Amino acid sequence: MLQTTCGLDFGTSNSSIAVPAKGSGTEPTLLAIDGDSSVVPSAMFFDNTDQTVIYGAAAHQRYLDGEPGRYLRGLKRVLGTSLADDGTFALGRYWSFTEILESFIHEVKHRAEALCQAELQDIVIGRPVHFVEGDPAADQAAEDMLHNIAVNAGFRQVAFQFEPVAAALSVDAQQLDQFTLVVDLGGGTSDFSVLHNPPGADQLEVLGVAGVTFGGQDADRALSLATVMHDLGYRTSLRNAKRELPTDHYHRLATWHQIDSLYNTADYESIKQLRSVAAYPDRLDLLLRILEQKKGHALAGAVERNKIRLCEAQRSQFTFALDDQQLQRPLTYAEFAASISAGLSRIDDGLRSCLKDAEVAGRDINSIVYTGGTALIPSVRTAVKEICPAATIVPADVYGAVAMGLSLHAARLYG
User: What is the pTM of this model?
Assistant: First the structure.
């Protein structure tokens, strides 16, 4: 039978797609849709030179190589927000954000079909517990928008499953004890589920789910604002020392999906005017150079790489090259942990809310499944361990577990 079903983990930072196993007793297949990698950066580059749209790692590389064009990343975060009705100009025309998302998902579908040599018609897409926290109407609007985008990208039937539930489905149930906590921490959200594995049952029982809109890109933003942005004038004062410089430019520069909005004459002229009254005009000069050279995404990428290094060691040397000088400063894990303290508190709240919803005490959790790159942050694992002290960690594919679980759900749903 030709393969027609699949599971898509469409992520804020990265995406992956899997298809169910062809025979019983075998695992789903994660498709290598970006070269040799099954993980594709959720990124696009509109190349002005050859008037084409580039996707994934190649898009990121074109941008880093300084090719003329427009780079976009983290666009999933516009779903359910007022930005979903906006768009951007590229390749000589206006692109709505929904059209951009549709283009990316269509490209993932096209690459997957080339590998499967069959048309993928029916899909289960992973979704966070909350696209938009505290606003059920906006949350449903986000799912409806993603449903329509998938249909327009060429899928016939579209269903959704919570990402932390899908991650658990990818793990052999025999490895899970009575109560399992899934901690799925991605680029844009932190999601949790508690599952029950009754003796003799052939399916896990979902007892509770919860989620908060804090993820890896929020951690990048927090680290950037706490450190690097100060070298560009953030939280510095005017010459009269009566008040600080406006902060909007810095917040947008530290936020992946808002960086592109700074590349306009009005913002550039506004910063030039601030330079004339700033206590540290040389720092504003650095900010202006970054905008002139359109290196905002490259700066965010440098912060992200240093965040990853800090999770592996206690120190990192931040270095960022402009055409005529370098921005350098040492970074420590202590600085990073302090910068995300508010986010860690939100993760703590989300986890406790999930346990309350499941009516299971943290001390009774036997197994923990971690998935998503943000789950590699040491402070996150320490916080989870404090709430669930007796649990053991069950190995899972940090970047592929959700997609594999979604493909299993697709096989059961569509047959």
Answer: 0.88
